Amino acid sequence: MGWIGLDLGTQSVRAVLADAKGHVLAGATRPLTSHRDGVRHEQDPQSWLSAVDAVLAEVGTADVDGIAICSTSGTFLLTDRAGRPVTPALMYDDARAAARRDHIVDADPDRWATSMQPTWALPKILELVADGHDLADRRVVHSADFVAAHLVGHPVATDTSHALKTGYDLLAETWPAEAFDKLGLPLSAFPAVVRPGVELGRTPAGVPVHAGMTDGCAAQIAAGALSPGAWNSVLGTTLVLKGVSDDLLVDPTGAVYSHRHPDGGWLPGGASSTGAGVLTELLPAADLDALDRAARAQGPIDAVTYPLTKTGERFPFVAQQAERFTLGSTPDDLHTYAAVLQGVAFIERLAFEHLETLGADPVRSVSLTGGATRSGYWNQLRADVLGVPVELPAVPDPAYGMAVLAASGGTDLIGTARRMVRVDRVLEPGDQRLDDLYGGFVAELDRRGYRG
User: Do the record's keywords include Kinase (predicted)?
Assistant: First the structure.
């Protein structure tokens, strides 16, 4: 008895098989490649199917009670009516259609003036139409939907989480027909939408395949951060925060958006353009583990880097003109490393402050997931700067989060997570919050006009 979670990432497909007590029984990974050409970023959707078949064969599907799938938020392709791909997959960060955002906002300013972002799926759908794709005989399919259809043998509904960046109205729980009509988008091209956890169909062997969620939400489930005041911070190439609120948080700046909580309420958060990816660029040949040990011995420094991975910021503020900068001196690799770590921690703190101004519950704990958790010094620094305990989940894996969602069957996700999710360690905050340096950092953001 057990449940499988699948995570369709940018660089790999991962499967995790877990039992009812949360024990990981098996896991498997297969690599993926993608193609970047300037602002364009594509992936071959057929490669997902080969990788998924391989990881499922490795973990085994005998006596499995369910499967759920997560994927990168906003990644989609067009298929024909039978579900065969007619375009590559356009990835979540593909910016080819940024100029079409204003056209979308004009179609429904009240809906999209503050929420629609240039890299969301909807602008790219318009771009494909402009390139000659007739949506009358096409279907918009998110990456998780494409894999689910492969497993069950027919096209499937999407879920509210993956549908968000395609323009789905989470309040009305419907596609915005009037706005789509103004944009020339036929509703027939868009899938039916169900809530996460709903059964989409069954494999030939009879295994239920459940509607999933995006990877950020999946990581949040794996962290068990599913009640107000508990947050999940995913730090990899970029930083993503996810939390819980009973009421929808409305952000006039557009930095924060919310998914539906499968148990009711909302999952607010945002995705920053800052993160650990800067380290690869600034320190391409460095031994990061050695630098981490040296940074721990050195302690905080009087310098900070605003660690943008590219021009433009999305969260905790929206500033397309934002650029990386450093305050203070970074004369060597160690100081460069430490300044980036402090910069990410500062952006994280600023993000939580912004969320609280919108009405989010005060932060009481933060679960840390993502590749950056391998840095013990960084974990403790983030606890110190935030001033709250940080938790390190035992299995910080979006694929594991999908196993938990599959086990819930779409009902009582919180209770299921309490049974399955375990915390490995808790780091208490120290006394050093670097308040003066943080204040100078925020003042510099304001001086540059990044925060409005």
Answer: yes
